[in-house]
Design brief:
The complex is a heterodimer of chains A (145) and B (578). Chain A is an alpha+beta fold. Helix content of chain A is 30%, strand content 25%. In chain A, helix 2 packs across helix 3 (68-85). With 578 residues, chain B is an alpha+beta fold. In chain B, helix 10 runs antiparallel to helix 11 (257-266). The chains are: A alpha+beta (145), B alpha+beta (578). The A-B interface holds A 14, 16, 18-19, 23, 25, 27, 30, 32, 122-123, 126-128, 130-132, 134-141 and B 63-64, 66, 71, 82-83, 91-100, 102-104, 106-107, 110, 141, 143, 193-194.
Chain lengths: 145, 578
């Protein structure tokens, strides 16, 4: 039976996980995305061969030691938003990719619902002084004017 | 050359490290302060020592007032220590800087890759340099190494075709169009997002000749990158660029190049220091490379072992001989071994060497004492106390009579007493105590008598519109007063030119200056009465083709032109055309 596999698209995006946050750049549009909560873990899982939604739920369940029933809906919604933004592509495959090795119980705080933030006006953000015009969270979080 | 001089560099029995013995070679580069030195240590030392340095740096740094060089190291510091509790107070903004350069560099790399693919499609070989080459060599995230722009080298034969391709892809020439003709070395471009792309005809502005870059191309290897076939320069060539660029910018507090050097050497197990040295020698850049290597020894000693530097010097005794001679002749040899100084001082000048000696063709009387060799600009180094008062000077006895012109004498009686017994054979430190000499010195009147002549006589010259050309000139001080330059002051004397039309009507009086005297940290630099020194100066041809006359001139900044005081000016006819 064919399964839908979700994976990142390295021809269109580059990403890096920093301190529990995945920074993803759409190099076609220049848009900048921040994936937080379980979003960084999801990004790592979908990089490379990709995963089906079912396997993603399993991996997240192992990683966060959280009941699979609780995490399926937020993960489904999150993956759909990644596809909508063009950060992740899907294809039908007869054989599912192997489940990557997952550090069991690695997330000390359990499951935190994934969040996707998108920054579009990067022309403006590139002009921001990343030392003086940002708040304590650092660029691209600007000081309140 | 005498036997004495030939033997001089062999006196390497001193246990003092080379960066101390040749510290005077770093006079043109401001010393690295403790804060920046600590930051460098946090990035380059082994983990335990690095973490100690990090703790010191975090405790002392004012993040809102961070300098440019330190800023460029923040992403690498974040990559190494971002999660360390020591960084907790700064981690937000450090992480932000990392994210900023992650984003910016990825866009830049992609835009550069697209351009390289277009050059590849057109059959034009291209070689990414600087940040891109370093990022590829060392691997890891491109965020770690901020890049102002993408630098790509093509051959001079392909330069115009490559420029057309680059500009067809949306890169706009960065400067006023009238400057294009003067871009001998590289052309800077920007895209709509403010990203930069510099297309290089030559790899280094300091040695802009195709035969030099031919060796760089020969050592490079071809490898596909992001869909483009490109050439990657050898680690040794990348290192030479890193040092030469880094030192050129060192007056702007740049020291991050030392971190780049550490990464290059670490990523290249077979790094060949001899290749680096030979290439610098071929390009006439050994002085700059040596200064850079001394800095590395001082601040990142694990990157360059003492034995490696010693071996390089042992293999080039001619360089040591010339360096020692120059330091003694310029009276800035206070750090040099006394034995070496004495032997150089007693010897005849060494034979000409490329780079800076080649144009000094006047014979020197064999008995000329080196420290009074009139071809060299002179120095008097001073030491200050913690309140900034001069307390000692490094003085050659021949210069005693000029102290009143070089400093403000605040206590004449004490100065006279100190000088009375001062008669060493060569320069030595003279302890004065506080309040004897001060800076700045008063400017004496009547020091505007000079002789200016071209090293290579010229009556007529052809140049392309906007072309920049360098000339050698001899400048003689014919006045009774010293011409001086203090470290903290604006350039005091400069070389420039006036432009006339073919009928002798003045078109433009003022042009850019070539400073005559260097500004050296902790030194009063001077040309004594009667001295004639060699200098180089640059001339920019007008953009409009035609016939002109050019007069070279010497200026005392904000005071006067020497030609107005009777100095004969070298002049020649200039034809500007394609």
């Amino acid at each position: 039976m064919s399964r839908t596999i979700f994976r990142t698209d390295p021809t269109r995006t580059v990403g890096e996980v920093i301190d529990g946050e995945a920074i993803v750049i759409d190099i076609e549009t220049g848009s900048y995305f921040s994936l937080q909560g379980a979003g960084a873990f999801v990004w790592q899982m979908l990089s490379g061969y990709g995963l089906s939604l079912e396997d993603l739920v399993t991996a997240t369940h192992l990683h966060t030691a959280t009941d699979a029933a609780q995490i399926e809906a937020p993960l489904r919604s999150f993956v759909e938003s990644l596809v909508r933004e063009g950060l992740v592509v899907s294809d039908l495959r007869d054989t599912a990719p192997p489940l990557p090795e997952v550090e069991a119980g690695g997330a000390a705080c359990g499951f935190v619902a994934p969040q996707l933030s998108r920054y579009d006006d990067m022309q403006e953000f590139l002009l921001v002084d990343p030392i003086h015009e940002v708040d304590e969270a650092g660029w691209p979080h600007l000081k309140p004017s | 050359m005498t036997e004495d001089c030939a033997d001089a560099p062999r006196s390497f029995t001193s246990v003092r490290p080379l960066h101390e013995r040749f510290a005077n070679c770093l006079d043109d580069h401001p010393p690295l302060d403790a804060l920046r030195s600590t930051l460098l240590a946090a990035l380059t030392h082994a983990p335990d020592r690095a973490r100690e340095a990090l703790a010191e740096w975090v405790a002392a740094v004012d993040f809102d007032r961070i300098d440019g060089g330190s800023y460029r190291l923040i992403p690498a510091l974040f990559a190494r220590f971002g999660r360390d509790p020591l960084c907790a107070s700064l981690s937000g903004r450090m992480g932000g800087i990392y994210r900023y350069h992650l984003y910016r560099n990825h866009l830049l790399l992609e835009a550069c890759a697209k351009t390289l693919r277009a050059l590849d499609d057109a059959g034009i070989p291209a070689m990414p340099m600087k940040g891109i080459a370093l990022t590829r060599l060392t691997g890891g995230s491109p965020a770690r190494r901020p890049m102002a722009d993408a630098d790509v080298l093509v051959t001079p034969d392909d330069y115009d075709a490559a420029t057309a391709i680059v500009e067809s892809l949306g890169w706009r020439y960065r400067h006023d169009a009238t400057r294009r003709a003067r871009d001998i070395h590289a052309r800077d471009h920007l895209d709509d997002r403010g990203l930069g792309f510099d297309l290089h005809r030559f790899s280094l502005v300091d040695s802009p000749r195709a035969e030099h870059d031919a060796r760089t191309w020969a050592r490079a290897h071809a490898e596909s990158w992001r869909g483009a076939n490109v050439y990657w320069m050898s680690s040794e060539d990348l290192a030479l660029h890193t040092v030469v660029h880094g030192l050129r910018d060192s007056n702007r507090s740049r020291f991050d190049w030392m971190h780049d050097m550490t990464l290059i050497v670490a990523a290249t197990p077979e790094f060949d220091w001899q290749v680096l040295w030979r290439e610098a020698t071929a390009r006439g850049l050994t002085d700059a490379l040596f200064a850079g290597l001394l800095q590395l020894r001082r601040h990142v000693p694990d990157t360059l072992p003492e034995t490696v530097l010693q071996t390089l010097l042992d293999g080039d005794p001619d360089f040591v001989r010339h360096t020692a001679y120059r330091l003694v002749a310029e009276t800035r040899c206070d750090a040099l071994d006394a034995e070496l100084t004495a032997r150089v001082a007693a010897a005849a000048p060494p034979a000409p060497r490329a780079s800076w000696f080649a144009l000094l063709r006047r014979p020197v009387p064999p008995l000329t004492r080196v420290a009074t060799d009139a071809r060299f600009i002179k120095h008097i180094r001073y030491r200050r106390d913690e309140d900034g008062h001069i307390v000692a000077i490094y003085l050659h006895p021949a210069y005693k009579g000029w102290l009143g012109q070089l400093f403000r004498v605040a206590d004449r009686r004490t100065l006279r007493t100190r000088l009375a017994g001062f008669a060493p054979p060569e320069a030595e430190w003279l302890e004065l105590g506080r309040g004897v000499l001060e800076l700045p010195a008063p400017t004496p009147p009547g020091r505007r008598k000079a002789k200016l002549r071209l090293a290579e006589p010229c009556d007529e010259l052809h140049m392309r519109p906007g072309e920049r050309r360098t000339f050698g000139v001899f400048v003689g001080n014919r006045s009774r007063f010293c011409w001086t330059q203090h470290a903290g002051a604006e350039p005091s004397f400069g070389l420039s030119w006036h432009l006339f039309d073919a009928r002798g009507r003045k078109l433009r009086h003022d042009h850019h200056r070539t400073p005559l005297l260097p500004r050296r940290h902790g030194c009063v630099v001077f040309i004594a009465p009667g001295q004639e020194v060699f200098s180089s100066m640059t001339l920019d041809a007008p953009m409009e083709p035609g016939l002109y006359r050019v007069d070279f001139d010497l200026v005392e900044e904000h005071v006067t032109w020497f030609s107005q005081h009777g100095m004969a000016v070298p002049q020649f006819a200039l034809t500007v055309g394609s």
